[in-house]
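Renewal narrative, Specific Aim 1. Our central claim is that a sequence can be written position by position from structural information alone. The example that follows is taken directly from our test logs and has not been curated for this report. It begins with the structure tokens describing the chain, in the order in which they were read.
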């Protein structure tokens, strides 16, 4: 069913392959990397399948002479391939669009990528489905079930069994295979704690005390969860302000469906009545914005701001010459005081654009601020690209 949904990042992948000898599509497991890659070429090898990489070994000398794009899925599972790729690329640096690697961990965890293919590989992140891909009519479904193709957004009967199975596989097999030393039970406990701490400032010492380990070990665990696209750590914005700033990152579980399954939320009404509803909405909106900017190929850096006296900007988009301040509220009727307060906080960083994202039916535009729902903001981002 989800084969029929067009992935917006496809054009960016094609553009990178025109310019580079190799590209890598990275992103969490089950986000649709393989399905997308197979629309680009039929020359496919799964590096987690011993029979397939045996076949690749036998065909390698002839394959690299052909013009067909070679897809190598879960390439981190077969490290020897990286030196072979480097050799093949260096023999003919002018040829582009030769190799497409797929991986479920970031280059920071794929040591072979950074060491062997530096300067030879374009890296593109594929997220689970975004609102642009499912359609705005599925906004609430996408928020509740998350964006994984089989997580419920296309068939609600899969929730929450799919998420529970996914988390089980992640903690019992994937994370240990990628190098995480935590026992599966400890990793599962950590994920449950992170679901409660979603959209809060990261406190490794507090989490460590609950798990009975030191904060350095907890931070090491978080590096793996971040590198496997399960967690986002939003860095604080540093500026020469006259106020003291909170300097720890904010932590989000990137997929709202995984968050809701960990919180044991039964349905959308259960989400709206839950104390974590506002935090969930904040994380969902942030992921949609950052995912859209990525496939639009915009150059930007995301931050948040919080002062010691609790003045906060949920998301700052630093485009270099311009800064956007974005506040996220789970309301359909923001008050004039909400807007005025947000503008004052945005003044702290001299934000060029100020946007309050909520669930309002019609956007409100003024000289200083835009108040809109998420689909309208996403359309603004498209126009700015």
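The sequence written for that structure reads:
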């Amino acid at each position: 069913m989800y084969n029929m949904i067009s992935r917006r990042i496809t054009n960016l992948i094609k553009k990178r392959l025109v310019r580079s000898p190799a590209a890598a599509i990275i992103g969490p497991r089950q986000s649709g990397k393989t399905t997308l890659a197979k629309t680009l070429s039929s020359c496919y090898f799964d590096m987690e399948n011993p029979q397939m990489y045996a076949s690749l070994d036998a065909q390698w000398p002839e394959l690299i002479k052909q013009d067909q794009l070679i897809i190598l899925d879960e390439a981190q599972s077969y490290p020897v391939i990286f030196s072979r790729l480097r050799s093949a690329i260096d023999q003919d640096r002018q040829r582009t669009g030769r190799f497409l690697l797929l991986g479920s961990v970031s280059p920071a965890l794929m040591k072979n990528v950074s060491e062997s293919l530096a300067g030879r590989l374009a890296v593109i992140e594929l997220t689970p489905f975004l609102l642009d891909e499912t359609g705005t009519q599925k906004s609430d479904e996408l928020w509740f079930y998350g964006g994984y193709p089989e997580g419920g957004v296309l068939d609600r009967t899969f929730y929450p069994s799919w998420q529970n199975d996914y988390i089980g596989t992640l903690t019992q097999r994937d994370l240990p295979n990628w190098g995480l030393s935590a026992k599966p039970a400890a990793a599962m406990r950590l994920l449950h704690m992170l679901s409660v701490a979603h959209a809060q400032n990261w406190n490794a010492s507090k989490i460590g005390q609950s798990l009975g380990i030191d904060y350095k070990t907890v931070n090491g665990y978080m590096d793996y969860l971040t590198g496997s696209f399960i967690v986002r750590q939003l860095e604080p914005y540093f500026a020469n302000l006259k106020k003291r700033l909170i300097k720890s990152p904010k932590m989000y579980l990137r997929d709202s469906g995984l968050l809701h399954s960990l919180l044991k939320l039964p349905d959308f009404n259960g989400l709206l009545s839950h104390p974590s509803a506002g935090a969930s909405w904040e994380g969902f909106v942030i992921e949609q914005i950052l995912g859209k900017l990525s496939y639009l190929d915009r150059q930007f850096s995301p931050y948040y701001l919080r002062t010691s006296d609790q003045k906060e900007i949920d998301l700052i988009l630093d485009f270099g010459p311009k800064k956007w301040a974005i506040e996220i509220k789970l309301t359909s009727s923001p008050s004039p005081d909400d807007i005025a307060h947000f503008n004052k906080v945005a003044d702290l960083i001299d934000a060029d654009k100020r946007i309050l994202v909520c669930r309002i039916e019609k956007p409100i535009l003024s000289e200083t601020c835009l108040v809109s729902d998420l689909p309208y903001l996403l359309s603004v981002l498209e126009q700015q690209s």
